[in-house]
Amino acid sequence: MLKSKVINGWNLFWLISLPISSAVILKMTKVDLSTARGVSSMIEIAVRCAVPLLYVTFAASAVNVLYPGDFGRWILRNRKFLGLAFAAAMAWQLTFILWMVTRHADHYVNRIYALSDVIEGIGGYTLLIAMTTTSFKFGRSRLTPKQWKILHTVGIYWLWTYAFITYWWYLFYSNQPLVINYIYYWMGFLAWGMRMAAWTSRRWQKANGEASGVATWLPGAAVAIVGLLGVTFGSPWGKAIYDFGFSIPALNTIGVYTPYFPFVPYYPLVLMMLGAGLALKIRQQSAAAG
Ligand code: HEM
Hints:
- With 290 residues, this protein is mainly α.
- It has 13 helices and no strands.
- The longest helix has 31 residues, at 36-66.
- The N and C termini lie far apart (46 Å).
- Protoporphyrin IX containing FE is lined by residues 40, 43-44, 47-48, 51, 54, 97, 112, 118, 121-122, 124-125, 159, 162-163, 166.
């Protein structure tokens, strides 16, 4: 079934993009676009259709490592078309962003505008446009394979970070614990978690030491679990770090011009990676010690 023409290639792109565009157009007939609130709700629906595609594209290579088989191959074979469907949905978000900025400039400037968000957002769209054009032969031919890989890796991490941090903020800073914000936050974490698991499992197999007892993985697992607690309960520590950063003018200025600074939602993820690294180190050392 996964080889069927219907769910592969451009057919898959249209199978995803046509319903998304229909949903957006249907919503347009139901909201008052002469109000900022109306346009905002269009930005919301467009990006909520886009983000799951971003997460699937972000996790695609890891799925193929963790679950090698028909589904893993299908997702990798169609990563380009899932990515292009994400870009198409983001084109709708851009349309309504421009609508907001041009037709509801007052609302945008007084209620939404923040230079750091604009730097992150324009960075995201610039990378997305470059990733989209280099998904076609004419664009790809202008880059070496190494340049192409760097662009698409930096691009997907930048866009994933934008989405993941947006939902982190909704949950742990501005206290908007809507169910959908939890779903999109944990989907974002799961997509990253699969990349981390694939990274770890590849190296775990390579370090083909006998030692795989509790002593090998427990210290690393303990560190990773502390990280997972940080991912789950962001408010107490995260808000404090942000407020501390905002209270120091120098850090505040850095925060305005440095995308995603001070990177708070990343801290527990780095801790989880350190945990995985520690477990790998112990295994490699025990393998070396024979
Ligand atoms: C300059 C560029 C951008 C601007 C001006 C912008 C503007 C906005 C605005 C106004 C909202 C809030 C809509 C509402 O009232 O709920 C929003 C939400 C959002 N945007 Fe953007 N955005 C930009 C780029 C991006 C990029 C590159 C991404 C990457 C994935 C992104 C992802 C999101 C997400 C995840 C939400 C939350 C949607 C939800 O409530 O579920 N945006 N954006």
